[in-house]
Each structure stands twice: as C-alpha cells, then as structure tokens.
Give the backbone structure.
Amino acid sequence: MPVPRARLLVVPHSGGGPNRYLRLLDDLPDDVEILGLTLPGRERRRTEPSGATLDEVLTSLAAIRRPELPTLILGHSLGATLGLHLAHALGEHCVGLIASGQEPGDGIGWLSEHSSDEDVLRLLELGGDMPSAILDNSGWRTSLLENLRADLGLGRESAERSRGIRIDAPITVLCGREDRLVDLDALPGWGAHSAAECEVRVFPGGHFALFDPVNRRQYVEAVERHFAAIAEPAS
C-alpha cells in the first residue's frame, strides 16, 4: 500500500454504519485513505448503547491517524450535517465537504423526542431502501428504532449548532431528484456554510440514490474533483 496523500472520511445516514459507503468508493486510488465514522449501536460498535453527542463525535477526530493529511468529508443525510461540524473542526486540513441527501440545517424537524414508533418508521418509508425482513424481525426493528431515535436527537443538536458555521473549503451538494425527505429548493442554502464555492447537483433517484449503480460515478467524480485540487507531493 502506498503512503496516503489524502483521506476521505465517510459519515453515514441516521441508523446506518459506514461499511456500505466504503464499498461504494472502492474505485478510488490506493493513495487515498478511506475511513468511516461508526456511531454506537451499529456495525463494529453494535454492542454499545445507542447515543452520542456532537462533542463526542468531534472528539473522535483525535483517533484518526496522521491528522495532518488533507481530508475530504462525504456525509449522507444526518452525515452531511455532522460532516459540516467535522469539516469545521479540521480547519485547514479539510479540502471539502460533499453533502448528500440533506438540506442545510435540520431536514427532520417534524420529528421530536415525543414522536411515536410509527412516526419514526414513516421516516424510513419516505427514505426507502429498508428491507422488510429487518422491520419484520422484532429484535432488529427494536435495535433500528433505538439507533434512529438516538441519531434524530444528534441531528437536532447538530442542526441547532450549525447556524453561522462556515468552512474555507468548497461544498458539493448531491441529491436524488425524487428524494421525499429533502426540499430541493433549499439545497443552494449550503452555500452559506462555505467561504469557497458551493455546487449543487441533482440526479435521478430517491433518498438513497447514491447506492444506485447508475449514480455511482457521480459520487466518485465528486470525490475526485475535490482531491484534484491537492498538489501532488514533491518527488
């Protein structure tokens, strides 16, 4: 493996983990290190109780190896909101943010800690991409609801604290045209969070359009464009 010249940090959606996203991006060059944020209650941390604060998420940056590497953040849905805070915390080491499937701000404000299980499951229905076998299994359903409720709380905290945050790096906004969780007219508002440029791209599909093979190249190209701005190390 070559010494990494850059890093991609992937931040997944509510209730999810990064493994599926890492497979989405396995065509990237070998000198790009790909890391994923895993919140408690899922994948390698599935035995931990669900729930994390924004400050705990930001503290996790300290565990990343070679923090001086130029870092691009790709966040989907909740991950886009968290990604803005992570990009801000990285400062000059952040070379860009790809905000996928999320409006600037909350985007889930119609849910609260008082929402019923049915309300939370309605969110899954609107987003799509949830196998019925998971919802039909009582154990998996309970675990998923716990993770979602924890993530919705984290999303509200992150949205409330995102007001006025600006990063010096460019932002690319990607979204499916048929995404029922996103107001497409609100997407240009991401530009208020960047002192550089902000580009919005819309393509066919719903909330999880990024996992459609037809759209895969859109995401890979967005990542490549951000990394193209990094100067190659001197030989």
The two ends are 17 Å apart (CA to CA). The longest strand covers residues 94-100.
